[in-house]
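# step 3/5: fold
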Amino acid sequence: LDAVTTVTEADARAYRGLGLPGVRIEAVPNSVPAPSLPPADPAAKTVVAAGRLTRVKRYDVLIDAFAEVAGDHPDWKLRIYGSGDAVQDLRQPLARRIEERGLGERAFLMGSVTPLEPEWVKGSIAAVTSQRESFGMTIVEAMRCGLPVVSTDCPHGPREIIEDGVDGRLVPVDDAAAVARALRELIEDDELRAKTARAALAASERFDPARIAARHEALWTELLDRGASRRAHS
């Protein structure tokens, strides 16, 4: 074994801790292509989320957070895209929570949609409230569409994608009040929202497939050169 690649630096550190002799451990994130649509309009008054309707995504926290903000901003809406999986589907409990919070005309469970890019660009803020992520593809997808992301600072991916306070916001896990504060900050400041959106779009370019492919190619070239050098000296 010459090398192991991971999609986050946190995972790479864990593998390095195993002390695998002679094995190169390199973090190379997943790639996301640029959408074929124009970036989202920062003036749109919609928060968008997307993912499986399972407990780990904590959409109950997002609904509660939006409920804290919604009363002061009656023109804003929340759209959650996705469905459950073979093990868990929380659509009905989440629908009840929406009604209990008085958001029946403000928050919507949109179901699964493919492709998602046309839905991302209908919003101006994306939200991720997961307890954990293996990487955080939806964060990158939203940023590629020009949306700043309010995300929980969960293991492992979000903090490696979002620069807190620059191109998005990181908040504690399972903290609806913190999510609400971050949403409110962006909702109530049009200039800040537009500035953060521009920063998110620019930062997301590092996940372009060509750039990620170049990193893989550089690693493979280095490994091949190292192997050739070893053979020459054996």
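# step 4/5: annotate
Residues 3-29+214-229 form one domain.
# step 5/5: archive (pending)
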